[in-house]
Amino acid sequence: MKIFLDTANLDELRKGADWGIVDGVTTNPSLIAKEGRPLEEQVREICRIVDGDISAEVVATESAAMIREGRELARIHKNIVVKAPLTREGIKATAALSGEGIRVNVTLCFSPSQALLAAKAGAYIVSPFVGRLDDVSTNGMELIRQILTIYKNYGYPTQVLAASLRHPMHVVDAALAGAHIGTMPFKVLDQLFNHPLTDKGLDAFLKDWAKVFQETGAVR
């Protein structure tokens, strides 16, 4: 499973990229707005940090405007994936942009029927929101499994990106389900490292090494 960071914060992206495990980035208008810089400027900086798919979202709601905006976003950098909402106008724009060879991430997916429409429109990625479904007492991870089954049944190449991953078990469950991509906040990525037995084991190894070194005077 590819790991994407769901952030537009450059410091977080630099830290994640430095670990060598970040495959891409997802942004949205809310994340871009938090950084206080124009979208194009912020996205260009992100592309300099992470060499992978970078999702940048349109803000228009009418298909013709989405198409124009999508073309402009795609021109920013070769790694840009245009993000469009799973609405009637968004699907119309997705079909048009995909027909031009522009990769589209269809976002705000909450049902298998919506995911089917995204694949039919030629989406490069579909983004089901796991955590937001959990918030309304619906099994978000089951949606991932359903979409993957539908895509496998008909050979759709659209990648399934598990979005709104709130904690490490969401990430593990998405990987077990077979999601192609999991996108998460930096905090969740950082939490994936944590296990008390790792800390305890390392502490014991270092104490044993120090004890031998001190007693024998051996040089490492």
Description:
By secondary structure, the protein is an alpha/beta fold. The chain has a single domain, classed as TIM Barrel (Alpha-Beta Barrel), CATH 3.20.20. The chain is 55% helix and 17% strand. It has eleven helices and eight strands. It has helices spanning 10-18, 29-35, 39-49, 63-76, 88-99, 112-120, 130-135, 140-154, 168-177, 186-191, 196-216, and strands at residues 2-6, 24-26, 53-57, 80-85, 104-109, 125-128, 159-162, 181-184. The protein has an eight-stranded parallel barrel, surrounded by six helices.
- CATH names the topology as TIM Barrel
CATH homolog superfamily: Aldolase class I
Low-confidence stretches: none
Which class best fits the helix and strand makeup?
alpha/beta
Q: What is the straight-line distance between the termini?
A: 39 Å
SSE pattern: EHEHHEHEHEHEHHEHEHH
Q: What percentage of the residues does DSSP assign to strands (E)? A: 15-25%
**Overall shape:** globular
- Using only C-alpha atoms, the radius of gyration works out to 21 Å
CATH level-1 class: Alpha Beta
Secondary structure tally: strands = 8
Question: What's the structural domain tally?
Answer: 1
Q: Could you say what the CATH architecture is?
A: Alpha-Beta Barrel
- Average per-residue pLDDT, rounded, comes to 95
